[in-house]
């Protein structure tokens, strides 16, 4: 029975992975890169003035300048603080955003099309958000299924925990690498799967809660998790942001502000809400509420709330590694690479068992390495034009697949070289377009890793080409 259970788990693991391999790969790859979405935002506009903190008067001045430039009514206004993870001051409404300097003067319109496309790819696979989120969340559940079935199907977990056999036709090495990554990082992969599933299923969870405990009242169910906004009736006036921000020094001296949201702008219900980091807690923020005049009304209570409420309010930071600064992001990046490699090696193992069908193999290599070139060229398109980057990325992906079918010579080494060349073109173009700004910290923190990838991909392409040549000679010599 144990043998039958392991075989059933292996079959489920294989077929689920094969049928959803491409989608899982794209979600994992984009998620691994999206860990650094704040760094990518800075990279797209490297010349913006950066600062560590800003005083309340500057916040007020910047928002006043923004309102003078965009007096049109929107439901919300926002101020993003330099302590948010991006050391820049941003003022915006629902439609447009501007950076401000340390004196509160507006400078450049915020523009990060590639970062937005990348995050949208991870969260929704660039599909309409209503059902794109459901699909991606379902893939999160699939990741959990693959982790569990993979562990069940593993025949010698203890014995092979540190086995990594090299040599031969490299097939055993790929299997060992797949099993080791799947085993070592299983807790992380389960956490990513569970938190990813939550984002799309939150609506369903609220619906079930409302039916089970609140007689179908969804708003009541929401308010048990997310503290409702106070209902205000007051004279319509310009919100006093300076007074509200100044009070944080007393209310939360050790909690750096993330951003301000002004709700229900220019209405009697207008509310100022300041989101702050809470050191030592995994929750996204504690929220402090003020009326239009800047008078303190109370906080949302996430910091000291029920453990269940704190857990739900921690999902974002758990999923994206938005804690512990750069070391935490680097850890998530490494573990994300392991999850992405699991997707790739799983399909590679399956293709090997099918004796590497030529067309399917070329299509898979075009998907894996062609996605890197597509992302690099899409980022370049975002720097030089206002073209839709979603259309650009998927157009390049389709073009890669067409070339893979039409041109038999496009093997893995060629795709590796194309990926490296595409990123190199991106780097050269970036340096030309941004001149001296390409040497700022905002630029170098992304450009240096991209240059490392170029070097790695070129070396990997040469090694893959040499291995293919060796394998071909071996096969020729073994032919009677």
UniProtKB/TrEMBL annotation:
Transmembrane feature ranges: 12-36, 131-153, 181-209, 330-351, 363-381, 387-407, 414-433, 439-458
UniProt KW keywords: Membrane, Transmembrane, Transmembrane helix
InterPro entries for this protein: PepSY-ass_TM
UniProt entry tagged with the keyword Protein biosynthesis: no
Pfam families: PepSY_TM
Signal peptide boundaries: none
Protein known as: PepSY domain-containing protein
Organism: Alteromonas halophila
